[in-house]
Amino acid sequence: MIDLEPTQQTPTPTTRRKAPGWFSFLTIVLVMAGLAAVGSFAFSEDSPTVTTAAATDDTGAVQNEPVSSEPDPADTSSDEPIADAAEVILPSVVQIQLRGGGVGSGVIYDPNGLILTAAHVVEDNETVTVRFQDGEEVTGTVIGGNADADVAVVQVERSGLPAAELALDETPRVGQMAIAVGSPWGLDSTVTAGIISAINQPLCDATSTCQSMLQTDAAINPGNSGGALVDRLGRVVGINVSIFTLSGANDGVGFAVPIDIAYDVADRLVSGESLAAAYLGVTGDDVASGQAGALITEVQPGTGAADAGVEVGDLIIALEDVEIQGIADLASQVRRYRPGTIVELLVVRDGAEIAFQVMLGERPATP
Known about the structure:
Elements: H1 28-36, E1 43-44, H2 81-89, E2 93-97, E3 103-110, E4 114-117, H3 119-122, E5 127-131, E6 137-146, E7 151-156, E8 177-182, E9 190-204, E10 210-216, E11 228-230, E12 236-243, E13 254-258, H4 259-271, E14 278-279, E15 282-286, E16 294-299, H5 304-308, E17 315-319, E18 322-323, H6 327-334, E19 342-349, E20 352-359, E21 361-362
Antiparallel strand pairs: 1-15, 2-3, 2-5, 3-4, 4-7, 5-6, 6-7, 8-9, 8-11, 9-10, 10-13, 11-12, 12-13, 14-21, 15-16, 16-17, 17-18, 17-19, 19-20
């Protein structure tokens, strides 16, 4: 996975404030090597974790009745759905500026000053500058971040802020409209559009740690990190965090943390709860024949998988309602849950399908 670094661009003529600097990406050789490894690595949950948008007169209405110019979030028949969604979400998207000149994005998700962003945007900063759509700038305090999920929360001393609507507990559809909003190259309030290219897309780093992502072809560039990926109603479906690129800029393959995951991490950060990752207790690999599923090669004793009866040689083909194509899918799906969650595994053993109810444990600390 290639992280979008907080924008550190060369200054360009503009009437809006920009933060100069530089940015860099991994070379494509490293990217291809990392992706090629996905199909063959042996996943162990003991692996290190990742640190890595008119009045009408023919309907019975009174002609002189005032008509709101605001888009109706429930109206999906507009001739300009992207413009309508942009009007809804733009007031909720902020620019985040770092002391060293980096720039990223954020999304107001609570009217009392809570802002979602990417962990790699705020890095190790305790405070950042938050710039609202109207140009006002205030100091924001970094409540905390989770590098594994690439999610962080910033708080500003404001109330009554325009909080974005989050599309929680909904599964985006492949092919649906996707709109990215943020500050690419420091250009705040920038809107780009495309579709959801894939859901449950596993991205793995060099340590074989995988995360489940939304994939989109909406243009995402440095500075978009932490910004919103929204649907046609302007509801946030994901937080933009990374791209796959040959050029260092948008090549049409961007990734966002699903909003359910981002919100869960944010909730834990704000409440001070543990950020421990879930743990199934297995090691596995892809099937050499190319058959879909995660082939279990080891089951750690005393874990949820062992207690439920999962055995070496089992082929896990689904976790809850998500089909498992390979070991990367299994690894990324487990990371979606909190420790203590009971999930259903669908396993093929000796040609028969068996369902197991497994209580996920807590991932052991890396030595």
